[in-house]
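Sequence, structure tokens reproduced for absentees:
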Amino acid sequence: MGAISTIEIVWLAAWLEGEGSFGWENPTKNQAKLPRITGSTSDHDVAQRAGSILGARLRYRKPGSSGPPQKKPMWEVRLYGAQATGWMMTLYPFMGRRRKARIKQVLQAWRAIPLPKAANLSQIWGRAESARRVRDFHLESLSPLLGQKPILL
């Protein structure tokens, strides 16, 4: 996938404002918790679009398989680690007050975690291609749209 457009970022922010959450993932008991972005929908095409923008895989949940009772199948998009933190910083200017507060809380806690040994970085931080895509889209490119300097948390 090429560069991610501002329209795609704004679309993703709007979708996550309504259908997403920002929090922590604990993949195994031996690993540190990782920042996480999750969004769920019963619309497969919407989940595919979000997953494509984020560089994340989709997870299918049958009705009644987990969480509150549901009548429709659900599609979940989940991203964690460095990719999630990069996206949180990118999405921050477009989010509402409550989501901004949560993103800020997660990022502050994440920054306080000591860095792991170099040998574990690829395992912990996830796929390098997704990280490069996020890195290549700098928050500074949004400055003209926002009419202000990038927000540094």
Summary: The chain is about 45% helix and 15% strand. The longest strand covers residues 34-41. Residues 127-140, 142-148 have pLDDT under 50 and may be disordered.
